[in-house]
């Protein structure tokens, strides 16, 4: 569980928060066939795949579904933190993620 929750550690460094480089790039380049957009999409898929592997190792009943949910929480936390210039959304997303993880991993 802790490996999955580690996704929601706030970024180090000073304010202002800039959000996710990959999400910001996707917003700025409208052409979905542009090589940079393809790279961004590949990165987002890889992020979810790595989270799914961790979720599977942790015993999640449906690791892919859990990973997709956590990726959405991460993207939302990153965007909200940047919009508010506040790291609190990472802690809020971590709390929500803990609930999702608890429900996704069967008790022994």
Automatic annotation (TrEMBL):
InterPro entries: Tet_transcr_reg_TetR-rel_C_sf, TetR_C
Keyword Transcription regulation assigned: yes
Domain Tetracyclin repressor-like C-terminal stretches: 18-96
Superkingdom of origin: Bacteria
Keywords (A to Z) from UniProt: Transcription, Transcription regulation
Record-linked Pfam families: TetR_C_13 (PF16925)
UniProt keyword annotation of Transcription present: yes
Protein name per its UniProtKB record: Tetracyclin repressor-like C-terminal domain-containing protein
Gene source species: Winogradskya consettensis
């Amino acid at each position: 569980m802790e490996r999955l929750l580690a996704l929601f550690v706030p970024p180090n460094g000073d304010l202002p928060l800039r959000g996710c480089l990959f999400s910001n790039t996707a917003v700025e380049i409208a052409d979905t066939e542009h090589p940079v957009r393809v790279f961004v999409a590949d990165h987002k898929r890889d992020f979810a795949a790595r989270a799914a592997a961790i979720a599977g190792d942790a015993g999640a009943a449906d690791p892919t579904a859990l990973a997709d949910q956590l990726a959405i929480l991460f993207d939302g936390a990153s965007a909200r933190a940047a919009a508010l210039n506040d790291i609190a959304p990472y802690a809020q997303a971590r709390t929500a993620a803990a609930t999702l993880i608890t429900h996704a991993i069967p008790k022994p």
